[in-house]
Amino acid sequence: MSDEQHVGNELVTVYEAPNAAVAGIIAGLLRSAGIACSVAGENQAGFSGVPAVAVTVLVRAEDLDRARNLLRQHEKLDESP
């Protein structure tokens, strides 16, 4: 997760995914919690001969803390036995 933080409605990176599928799952999780988000870079990842490019999930700066907390909770659930 990125430590970028800005004020206002500026979009900031909340998550860098290895591919578009993972970014889509993260975006769906955020949206289901009422957090508006966008996915960037999904059209560049995975082309033959192109180095891997992280796909980023962006949220409004004002939603960054809430989004991070949600993702941390989700990660903890995934790590549970």
What key phrases describe this protein's structure?
81 residues, alpha+beta, Alpha-Beta Plaits, 2 helices, 36% helix, globular
Proportion of residues in β-strands: 15-25%
Major β-sheet profile: 3 strands, antiparallel
Distance from N terminus to C terminus (CA atoms, Å) equals: 24 Å
Structural class: alpha+beta
The number of domains: 1
Q: DSSP helix count?
A: 2
Return the CATH topology.
Alpha-Beta Plaits
Helix and strand run: EHEEH
Overall 3D form: globular
Strand segment tally: 3
Over all CA atoms, what is the radius of gyration? 13 Å
For this structure, what is the CATH class?
Answer: Alpha Beta
Strand order of the largest sheet: 1-3-2
Low-confidence stretches: 1-6
Mean of pLDDT: 82
Would you identify the CATH architecture? 2-Layer Sandwich
Q: What percent of the residues sit in helical stretches (DSSP H or I)?
A: 25-40%
Explain how this protein is built.
The chain has a 3-stranded antiparallel beta sheet with strand order 1-3-2, with helices on one face. The chain has 81 residues and is α+β, with helices and mostly antiparallel strands. The chain is built from 2 helices and 3 strands, in the order βαββα. The protein starts with 10 loop residues before the first strand and ends with a helix. Helices cover 36% and strands 21% of the residues. Residues 1-6 have low confidence and may be disordered. It has a single domain (11-79), classed as 2-Layer Sandwich (Alpha-Beta Plaits), CATH 3.30.70.
